[in-house]
Amino acid sequence: MVGGHSSFDQDKNRLAEYETESTEYSEKQGGGTDCYNSKTGEFLGRTPSSWRKLTSFFVLFSAIVAVIWGLCMGIFFQTLDFYIPKFTQQSSLLWEDPGLGFRPAGGLGYQTKTGQYKGYSIYSSLIWFRHGGDGNYDRLRANLDKYLEEYEPGFFANQGASLTKCDFESKPITKDESCEFNKEWLSDAGSDIKCISSEYYGYNYGRPCILLKMNRVYDWRPIPYDIEEIRNHTTMPKKLKSDIERIWEEKCGDRSWGEDGLDPCPYLNMVWLHCDGETDADKENIGPVTYTPYRGFPGYYFPYRNQRGYLSPIVMVQLKNPTPAVLMNIECTAWARNIRHNRLKKSGMVHFELLMD
């Protein structure tokens, strides 16, 4: 009994001590909210000194990460040139696949799921317009005007210092020079409806003009065909071959080029351009096609090396009599010895649709 009574007293004393400690702990924790404890000075469970240590750690950690990232970016930029691409010539994916672009662009636009109209889509390849006095070609005209702004004299600062007049018989340009291109050349003096803004680029009269350009590929230079290669070419369109033959007879046929007479005719130094319908029906509906100022892109505009004020050569392709109310699939191809054609990759060509109401 004595031993048992003593054990009971010990347990009772321990329980009393535990209750006393619990009461003191509760009183110690009291006097504040969940965010701030006024007795201990803790905020969100941490004392000010603990917060200072945690903040210092993350500031120091972030600073070290930022310094390492900055060093990596600095080393990376040391391997790049702001004017010359890292991959050029055969190492470039675009070296043998220069593409073509066209204007006007925008298509019909699109609508959101809520039915809100979002304007014209840059991903559309459709050129649709209604010609005549009540036509809707103002947007197409504005799109062409916008693109041709850089061909205005003085658009680039100090542009005249790097531009030089070039022709087929002039000497090749130096690395820092580029050939001038005057947008007035896009006006065909022999055409009754010209590809100029004041005549709505022909859209008002149902004779639309489409601007074609070659995408810039650094240091790329076309390798032109000679006349025998053109005559023996098996896939080149017959209309293009006949037009080149006519140019050859007018410019090259009665002259010998070079001291030994073996140098190629400079008037064949071209990236030839040809536009036609994709199917037989499209070819019939597209009607006659003219090209201004040249039948393609003169070779003396190449290569492109990021020259100051460089202007890409452009061609205005005019459809003289397209069939109204018929959707036409049109394909334009560029022709040179080092240009490959691939419809899937759109290399060496461009596709668009035309619908005239």
Kindly, what is the distance between the CA atoms of the first and last residues, rounded to a whole number of angstroms? Answer: 116 Å
**Tally of extended strands?**
13
**Helix proportion:** 25-40%
Number of helices: 6
| Biggest beta-sheet profile | 5 strands, mixed
Looking at the structure, what is the overall shape? elongated
The run of helices and strands is HEEHEEHEEEHHEHEEEEE
Radius of gyration equals 37 Å
Spans where pLDDT lies below 50 across 5 or more residues: none
What class, by secondary structure content?
Answer: alpha+beta
Strand order of the largest sheet: 4-13-12-8-10
Q: What's the mean pLDDT score?
A: 83
The percent range for strand residues is 15-25%
Mind explaining what this structure looks like?
The chain has 357 residues and is of the alpha+beta class. It is 27% helix and 17% strand. It is built from 6 helices and 13 strands. The strands form 4 sheets. Strands 4-13-12-8-10 form a 5-stranded mixed β-sheet. The protein has a 4-stranded antiparallel β-sheet with strand order 3-7-11-9. A hairpin with a 4-residue loop joins β1 (36-37) and β2. The longest helix is centred in the N-terminal third of the chain and has 31 residues, at 48-78.
In short, what is this structure?
The protein has helices spanning 2-29, 48-78, 138-147, 227-232, 238-251, 280-286, and strands spanning 36-37, 42-43, 100-103, 126-129, 163-164, 178-179, 209-214, 270-277, 289-292, 296-298, 314-319, 328-335, 349-356. The chain has 357 residues and is of the alpha+beta class. The mean pLDDT is 83.
